[in-house]
Write a structure and sequence with these properties.
Number of domains: 2
CATH class of the largest domain: Alpha Beta
Distance between the termini: 57 Å
Number of helices: 7
CATH topology of the largest domain: D-Maltodextrin-Binding Protein, domain 2
Strand content: 15-25%
Strand order of the largest sheet: 4-3-5-7-6
Number of strands: 7
CATH superfamily of the largest domain: Periplasmic binding protein-like II
CATH architecture of the largest domain: 3-Layer(aba) Sandwich
Structural class: alpha/beta
Order of helices and strands: HHHEEHEHHEEEEH
Length: 202
């Protein structure tokens, strides 16, 4: 049986753009430029002969056709992700390995202490490491790195967050994540955990 499928990269761009309601947000997640996301979506629209987004100067909204298409595409991605995790022994139950740069470790942030002690969630392991984004690409020893700068992070997914220090100060931080990990359940849990801790400390 041959499946009639549209461009798969276009589907990823479409789903991410619809979720973020932004080509820029989708581009950050997928580690490409907003222009590349726009082009991927345009190629998908051409293949479908259907317009999926209304484009304005600073915003995008789903067309009626896009709204009908999105739930099935989202469900398909969820099923692929679930099947992959269930099938691949190396992924089943795998913890997200979060590196914590020295300057943030020295700030004595309660939420980071709990992550290192594995008290917040069993899905995430906090590790004290050097402030080196290369750890995310050299042998895959880390999945994500929490640091103060996005310098040297080209090609990696970036979330800009605020973390509460031990003295209740608020520290601007950058969560740098490998593209293949960004957007997974553990990554989303980590972002929500850090954001909630910052709100509760304010």
């Amino acid at each position: 049986m041959t499946y009639r499928l549209p461009p798969l990269n276009g589907l990823r761009a479409f789903e991410a753009a619809a979720r973020h309601r932004s080509f820029t947000g989708a581009a950050d997640e997928l580690c490409v430029t907003p222009g590349a996301v726009s082009q991927l979506v345009k190629t998908l629209e051409t293949a479908l002969d259907t317009r999926l987004f209304h484009r304005a100067a600073r915003s995008i909204t789903l067309t009626a056709e896009g709204k009908r298409y999105l739930p099935s595409i989202r469900k398909a991605f969820e099923e692929i992700a679930a099947a992959t995790e269930a099938t691949a022994p190396g992924l089943r139950g795998r913890k997200l390995r979060l590196g914590i740069a020295p300057d943030l470790d020295e700030a004595d942030c309660p939420v980071l202490r709990r992550l290192v002690a594995r008290k917040d969630t069993p899905e995430i392991v906090g590790l004290r490491v050097a402030d080196d984004p290369g750890l995310l690409t050299q042998g895959g020893s880390l999945d994500a790195l929490l640091r103060s700068s996005d310098e040297g992070c080209a090609g990696l997914h970036i979330d800009r967050l605020v973390v509460a220090g031990g003295d209740r100060s608020r520290l601007a931080t950058v969560l740098v994540t490998r593209p293949g990990i960004a957007g997974c359940r553990q990554h989303k849990t980590l972002v929500m955990l850090l954001a909630r801790a910052a709100r509760e400390s304010h």
